Amino acid sequence: MTGSIVGKRFYKEVKKREGDDGNGWTMLLDYRTLKTPSKRQLKLPTLSLAKAIAAEWDYQLHSSGTELINDK
Length: 72
Description:
17% strand; 2 helices; alpha+beta; ATP12-like
């Protein structure tokens, strides 16, 4: 397989916030809460996991994707 399967980004901002019930963390893409395929709010158990996911998505948003290819 050649090429990359990278879709067009539909969001401009990634945020994390504490769950409404104070239990866990949720992710927001342009102020929209991220949901699971069953349309439930995605809840992350720890702040460190929420930070890691937010950092990954923010990196993808601001990178061209060629850094990994050029590092080889």
